[in-house]
Structure formats: structure tokens, C-alpha cells
Structure prediction request, 342 residues.
Amino acid sequence: MNLDSLALRLQNDQLSILDQQLLPFEKKWLTVKSVDEMITIIKALKVRGAPLIGVAAALALADEARQKKYSIGQFQQAAERMRQARPTAVNLMNAVDRVTAAAKTSDYISAVWNEAVAIFHEDVELCEKMGRRAAELINEGDGVLTHCNTGGLATVGRGTALAAISCAWEQKKSIHVYVDETRPLLQGGRLTAWELSEMGIPYTLISDNMAGWVMSQGKVQKVFVGTDRIAMNGDIANKVGTYSVAVLCKYHNIPFYVVGPSTTIDPHCPSGREIPIEERAPHEVRGVEGSFGKVQWASPESQVYNPAFDVTPVDLITGIVVDGDYFSQTDLKAGALRRLFN
Ligand code: MRU
Prediction:
């Protein structure tokens, strides 16, 4: 069986990923031979984006179980190590839980494999649904600002927030995208700018601290972002900097929309306060590193705080598109997400 997407492939029984650390200047596919290799790859953000992390984790577990003919005990240990790879994107835990639950059948290796493949196909479908529903919120002539990367590189389909943008473009709406570069790891500048130029969608790259000024000039009519975890009360975690964008939207009266699949909802998380926020290494803030080279501008002794995500409270969110459905702030506050799990 073959599976194909922008950043993850399964061909002739070999799982490989596009090294996102090297984009946009180098396109290098890495073959992933074990769960522990995939864990290292996820930690290094060579594979990133909440839905893609979930799919990659499930397939790596299923592939290793199949190749090494694991016992159930070995599989469960590998699943536990995989769960710890990154703490915020709940798609990882949801995907690991799904393949672990599938492992409870007699022919567990095939069951796990089938579940991992189902997770892949489901992500493609959910991206399409989200993109179409969220594109309805975009009008002809809109300037749309987005943060981080939420496209085909963050999923195995067409993305979350970026799918809204590409669907609107496909519907022939003339739009212009403002891309936050997304410090410290530059997912906007390196990855979203690349995806938009590949699709021929007009965009302008700005550094994160320009967003407020660009909004004050009337260039932005809507903001669309993805999410790494949606809490039951409608609070969301996403790439650090998202909260600042939402605060700016409030001041400038700009709708702030979140787009995510149901696999990003955490039914066990009552509010944003309970979402674990990943902290990363200080060197990521003291400089930058990628296929463009390595620069360090702060002294190695500089004290650094490097949270990879922040939480945007529901009060700042105009609405969330989950799969094919739209939930307004009023719906979210009235417990619409809780009802999905009852
Ligand atoms: O640290 P990253 O690059 O994995 O962070 C990704 C994001 O924050 C995305 O916005 C998020 O995963 C949702 S979009 C698919």
C-alpha cells in the first residue's frame, strides 16, 4: 500500500518524511525506520504541525510493530515513549490512544496498521471539510492574516487554517494573505510563504511585530489560525504569538477564527489553564538555524524563556471551525464542544 502527502509518504513499505527543518531551500526526504527515530524527528520539528504529528506517530508505531513482529508489551512501551515526544499537540496523544486501543484485538498487528492508515485518510477528509466550511467566512477582496504553518506541511491533507485560504482561492475569491514570520522557528517565513507561493496565492511576509501596524492600516479583514489543542470551554493553544494576534484583533475589531479537526479537541481538558505548554531549548531564541545557516546574536549566557505555544482564551475567539461545523463564541461558551462528547 502507498500513502502520499506533501510531507509524509509510505512507498513500498517504507515510511519517509520531508525534513521541514531544511525547507524552503532544500527538499530532502528521510526514511524513518523506527519509533525512536520518529520521536527524534518529531522533537526536532522535522515533522511538525499537530495533525501531521499524530499521523506520523501512528504510522511509525504500526510500521515498527509490523517489521519487528512486536509483542503487545513491546508495542505498549513504544507507544508510551511516542506519547512523550511533544506535550502540547493533543493529536499525538489521540492518535497513540487510537492505535493502542486497536491493539486490544487478537490480530493486533493488522488492527494497529489498519487504524494508522484510517487516521491518515481521515485527516485528508477532515482537512477538506474544514477548508470548505472555513472558506465560507472569507469574502472577496479580504486581507487574511495567518500565524505559523497550518497547510499541507502540518497535516496529510490540505491543512487547517491554510486550507480555508486555499479553498477560498480555489473559489476564485481574490484575497491577499499576510504571513507572520513566526519567531523563533520561522514556520511562517519558511513554510507558509513556501506553500503559498507553490499554490500561486498572493501573500506578503511580515515579521510578527508588524501585525498590529498592518491591522491599523486596514489591510487585514480576518485572521485564521490553526490549533494544537482545543479545550472544552473553547480556549485553544497554538504557536506562541497567536495570543498576541488575538489581542490585536480585539483592539482593531477584526474577526479571529480558529480552524482545527476534531482530533485536536481534548475532552479531558476543561480550559486553557490545563493545557501543557512545551518549553524548548534556549538556543532557539538566542539565534536561528536552518538550511540558510546558523546565526547567534545573543550571548550564550542570556537568560531565555522559550514557550513553543500560548493559550488564546475563548473571549478573544470569534469562532472555531471543527471539521465541517462552525461554533461561534456564543456556542462555545454555551458548551457546544462538551455536547460533542456526550
Ligand atoms: O511547533 P509546530 O510547528 O508543530 O507548531 C504548529 C502550530 O502551532 C500549528 O499552528 C498547529 O499545529 C495547528 S495547524 C495544523
